[in-house]
Design a protein that fits this description.
The relative contact order is 0.30. The longest helix is centred in the N-terminal third of the chain and has 6 residues, at 21-26. By secondary structure, this protein is mainly beta. The protein starts with 8 loop residues before the first strand and ends in a 9-residue tail after the last strand. The model has no long low-confidence stretch (mean pLDDT 91). The protein is globular and about 35 Å long. The protein has one helix at 21-26; strands spanning 9-14, 36-40, 44-51, 56-62, 66-72, 74-79, 84-90, 95-98, 106-112, 118-125. The chain has one domain (9-125): Sandwich (Jelly Rolls), CATH 2.60.120.
Length: 134
């Protein structure tokens, strides 16, 4: 079974950005999009994101096209810079492809608010132009 997109949002809300002001100020220069860099060359960077229950990955920037795939399911909360958050139940195999650039970047964090280890593989494409998806 091929899944085309991430799990649906199960909760939304707001948070106080002042609680993360220092981290948000550093985020435009934080290109560490995972907990472990598994591989890198001139074309791609491959990260593992491994968050134990209660762990949170810091605010970071995505300014390149990338995709992620869930390899251990769980529940995560993602905060955005506008003071909003979303909660999703990530399922094994959920995959999302996102096109970003310096002009259309994304800054966010990710927190494991579930009871299991939450793991993703994230692949960042460094070559510039995004390949077409059919």
């Amino acid at each position: 079974m091929m899944q085309q997109d991430a799990a649906p949002i199960i909760e939304t809300g707001r948070y106080d950005i002042a609680d993360y002001a220092d981290e948000l100020a550093k985020a435009p220069n934080n290109h560490t999009v995972g907990t472990t860099l598994w591989f890198a060359n001139d074309h791609i960077r491959v990260f593992e994101i491994r968050l134990e229950p209660g762990d949170r990955g810091a605010f970071h920037i995505h300014d390149k096209t990338y995709f992620w795939t869930v390899i251990e399911p769980g529940r995560g909360r993602q905060r955005l810079t506008d003071g909003t958050f979303t909660v999703r139940d990530y399922r094994l195999g959920d995959t999302k492809y996102l096109v970003h650039s310096a002009e259309s970047s994304l800054i966010h964090d990710l927190e494991n608010i579930g009871h299991t280890t939450l793991r993703f593989v994230t692949v960042e494409l460094l070559d510039g132009a995004a390949p077409s998806v059919s």
